[in-house]
Amino acid sequence: MSLISLVVVLIIVGVLLWLVNAYIPMDATIKKIINIVVIVVVVLWLLSMFFDFGSLNAIKIGRH
Questions:
Q1: CA distance 64 to 47
Q2: Under 8 Å between Cβ of 4 and 52
Q3: How far apart are CA 38 and CA 46, in angstroms?
Q4: Domain annotation covers residue 14
Q5: Is the pLDDT of residue 53 over 90?
Q6: Residue 13 burial (10 A CB sphere; 0-12, 13-18, 19+)
Q7: pLDDT digits 0-9 by tens, 7-36
Q8: Is residue 18 a part of any domain in this protein?
Q9: DSSP letters for 40-60
Q10: Can you give the three-state secondary structure of 11-45, one letter per residue?
Q11: Residue 34 included in any domain
């Protein structure tokens, strides 16, 4: 994915999140939860774009 399309996706996600926060009436705690979930998903998506998490499957924790 090119840098321009990455920026476009981030702008679209930001605008959609702003629209939800501005125009959909709901409790403030639900809005906070939605904001946190969207931010975590976007951060994980960005990390997966730049780092290879496939090698993490080989890590063993504990006795196996």
A1: 28
A2: no
A3: 12
A4: yes
A5: no
A6: middle
A7: 999 999 999 999 999 999 999 999 999 999
A8: yes
A9: HHHHHHHHHHHS--GGGGG--
A10: HHHHHHHHHHHHHCCCCHHHHHHHHHHHHHHHHHH
A11: yes
